[in-house]
Amino acid sequence: MKPDKYLLWKQSLVEFGRLNNAVPQIVKRPSVGSDIDYYYLSMEIPFGTNKIEFSQGATIFAHYVGFSKVLLSYSYINNCLLTLSLSRSDFFDIFFQGSLIKTGSKDFDKIFSIRSTDKSAALLIFGDREIQELFLGNKLLIFNISTNKSRVTTVTLKAMEEKFYSTSELTHLLEHFKTILHKL
Question: How far is Cα 145 from Cα 20, in angstroms, rounded to an integer?
């Protein structure tokens, strides 16, 4: 029998999927020689003519249930090479300040470092006060854009806090991710 916390997680993500016209797929991952059960939930959320990939995992050991990070990902064909990364400022940024993009917000620029091959795209996204507030209010968000050699650009937003996210928290995260995608 699965613990109640796992069943609530599954039920919550089924509801999140229903609200976003998506059907969650749960796969049990094998664990050889262990009493730990690993589950991986993913769903494709319609967005324009494409889809946003959503995923999160759950681990069950006896009555313990743990959750992995939440990943939102969107890929599209892009004619130009685009990379963009947002990270928390660190010691090395002192030496590479010339390559950093500043938004003009003292609060945001003091905490975050932005690097990109497209300064205007970076400012379009992170010059938005609502997007700045999202990252200022959540220290465990990671954001990246990268284009591979086949010209497929992937935009990712990871919520690194390993927890049970409520439907409203996931909806909030998804809406902000969509706002970022609309800016691209």
Answer: 23
Confidence category of residue 78, pLDDT binned at 50, 70, 90 = confident
DSSP conformation class of 63: T
Does residue 131 sit in helix, strand or coil?
helix
DSSP H helical ranges for the chain: 4-19, 106-111, 119-126, 129-136, 167-183
Torsion over CA: 154, 139, 177, 69 (sign) = positive
Contacts 24+ apart (CB under 8 A), 87-95: 87/112, 87/113, 87/115, 87/142, 88/112, 88/113, 88/139, 89/113
User: Is the confidence at residue 31, as pLDDT, over 80?
Assistant: no
Q: What is the mean pLDDT of residues 93-119?
A: 80
User: Within 10 A of 48 (CB to CB), how many other CB atoms are there?
Assistant: 11
Contact call for residues 24 and 41 (beta carbons, < 8 A): yes
Query: Model-level pTM greater than 0.85?
Result: yes
Torsion angle of the four alpha carbons 115, 132, 104, 124, in this order, in degrees rounded to the nearest 10: 60
Q: How would residue 122 be classed by pLDDT, with cut points 50, 70 and 90?
A: very high
Angstrom distance (rounded) from CA 141 to CA 84: 15
Other CB atoms within a 10 A radius of the CB of residue 2 amount to 13
